[in-house]
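Q: How would the structure tokens look for this protein?
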Amino acid sequence: MKDQTLFDKIDLHLIRVLHTVLTERNVSRTALRLGMHQPAVSAALRRLRELAGDPLLVRSGPGMVPTPAGLRMIEPAGHILRSAEVMFSDARRFDPATARHTFTLAASDYLDPFFLPQLVTHLKTQAPLCPIEIQPLSGESDYHRRLAQGEVDVVIGNWAQPSGDLHLGRLFGDEVVCLVSKNHPAVRRGWSVDEWLQAEHIAPTPTHPGARGVIDDHLASQGLTRQITARCPHFSLIPAMVASSLLVLTTGRHFCERFVETLPVDILPCPVPFPRLMYYQLWHGRTHTSPAAQWLRDSVRTVAAALRHDDHAGAEAPIPVPAATRSRARPARRSPNPSAA
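A: Here is the predicted structure in token form.
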């Protein structure tokens, strides 16, 4: 009877607060993420501590950390929330015009700079009541865990070998080229492999000591090393740095082409042969059959295809509403985190 009394005091909202506060490890961020006032989150946390007979979250230095009991509760709480989502949301047909489902994506900043703006426009046009959260995708972010725990619906980026136990949808491939200032000597005279290797290159800041992106991984496989003299963690700022220097950015053609009309830069072929950069969306098996998640993946694929069609046709084409069909997927091989250059 005692256990039944305890069970009667627990509701799904408390479980949601429990899972969020234990993963965020911060009351203010929990309140922001759940759309609650901070005192309400603090009150819910007090109730949870009373029910558990444990502090659950304690202060450690400048932040907070879960207690051992709190750590044990993260996965069961996530499982309860996922089960409730399946019971009450995914069991119903998804209607984007009336749905109130929050879509959460993690995406690399080295995608085509038009992609995310057009995707948000498409999602807000077709699903106007659905909130959208776009999170950064970087080497230090454990995207596999975030997908498994339902923190992210889909991740979008390029991987030489995507994670093998996630579903995969190919979006597009891209040619590896070089972006340089119009004043770069290579614009006038071209360059050899040695000249390209000895040029001053700019690349993203490594995600961790010793990390390499797909460009340097491929060079290493060929026994080659380029001279990187500048690094920047914000990929979208690099073209402006290239425009006013002799730095060389090596990445996908579609990213580079977006800056040719607005900056004094040129695109040059890379003298070292590279395989095409492949861009994918990845998702976890827990959302594979979800109507809402299927619609989101269809939207991602549709916007990516529309951008390619616009580029080849030289004219803007309207983005059609994707059919609510099941996303095809295939298993892929395990790999490190994404990197573009």
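Residues 313-337 have pLDDT under 50 and may be disordered.

The CA atoms of residues 164 and 309 lie 30 Å apart.

Upvote if useful.
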